[in-house]
Design brief:
Radius of gyration: 21 Å
Structural class: alpha/beta
Shape: globular
Number of helices: 10
Largest sheet: 7 strands, mixed
């Protein structure tokens, strides 16, 4: 089956061939994936691009590990979320509220001078949060250029007590200045050399006076573009909603595996992009499984009993899969 790739795909492929660093190659490959139509004709190509990205990511991590001045944060858990924003919006306080990290917290700007890392537990998985220095800081651009580009999700933190829309706009402008823009379905926008990233807005300090009106204005402005979640990191308000919102914004699913005749392991799911198929799950478990698999049985997380399905069956969050090879 022909792939029927659009011209923009080949433009991105030229950028990939001309790229000299792993990071630039990854950026071009991600653009190719975003542009490529998804059907049986592109299945093999889709897998090849994913493998190249995984190999280049490992190369970038090895390079960072040997660099004395590395600004690369190795990904851990089900996804990496970069916390970005203006000074004194409560990023470090948020990190402390949802993880076991103990960052320095101060009621004055620029307390965070280097990234702090914590793991946030959500049900049966861990999600990595990276608290970055303020976007307007003197040395922040180097950190942002590496961390935000590598992250799976960018969480823009704003202070509901201090013109949150203006804060969000300022942060988005700083991100765009280093080539990072929100995910778009536009093929044209995917070819302009920008790195598209999933984003959400976390509106902090909801416990303060008049924060409700600010939250409504923020939702009216951005809810059609990003998820917007209001919280109070200091009071712990809406923290569980935030955790669920971050999981949803990552656009991932958890899939549990089981061997024939055995119970599934529900404590260590494999993590896949939302919309992934049985074929992609098999490849994630082992690269040879996709070609050797005869069929699969899927239990729909309590929605239906085990059913034999095709390799093109789209999996849902918390599905249980049994591969037969």
């Amino acid at each position: 089956m022909p792939a029927n790739l659009p011209p923009q795909y080949f433009d991105a492929e030229k950028r990939y061939r001309a790229a000299r660093t792993p990071e630039d190659k990854i950026e071009a490959l991600e653009t190719m994936l975003a542009i490529m139509p998804k059907h049986k004709g592109t299945d093999r190509l889709h897998g090849d691009l994913r493998r190249k990205i995984a190999k280049l990511t490992e190369e970038a991590e090895r390079k960072a590990a040997t660099s004395r001045a590395s600004f690369y944060i190795r990904k851990e858990g089900a996804g990496q979320v970069a916390l970005v924003g203006l000074p004194n919006v409560g990023k470090s306080q948020l990190l402390a509220a949802v993880t076991d990290a103990s960052p320095e917290i101060g009621a004055y700007p620029f307390t965070t001078r280097a990234p702090n890392i914590g793991m946030m537990k959500f049900e049966n998985i861990q999600i990595q949060l990276v608290d970055t220095p303020p976007v307007t800081g003197r040395d922040s651009r180097v950190w942002l250029n590496n961390i935000a580009r590598n992250a799976d999700l960018i969480a823009i933190i704003v202070d509901l007590s201090n013109q949150p829309i203006e804060q969000a706009e300022a942060t988005l402008q700083e991100l765009e200045s280093i080539g990072i823009v929100p995910v778009s379905n536009s093929i044209t926008e995917a070819t302009i050399g920008k790195r598209q990233r999933k984003m959400l807005i976390i509106a902090n300090k909801s416990d303060l006076e008049n924060s409700g009106a600010s939250a409504k204005q923020l939702n009216a402005q951005y809810s059609g573009q990003f998820p917007v979640i209001s919280i109070s990191a200091s009071e712990g308000n809406n923290i569980e909603v935030l955790k669920s919102g971050i999981f949803q914004a990552l656009d991932i699913i958890r899939v549990h595996t089981k061997s024939p005749g055995q119970k599934p392991d529900l404590t260590d799911p494999i993590i896949l992009k939302r919309g992934s198929t049985v074929r992609e799950a098999a490849e994630d478990i082992h690269k040879d499984f996709k070609s050797k698999m005869k069929y699969a049985v899927v239990w729909g997380s309590g929605k239906f009993d085990g059913q034999r399905v095709s390799q093109d069956h789209v999996l849902q969050d918390n599905d249980i899969i049994e591969l037969h090879i």
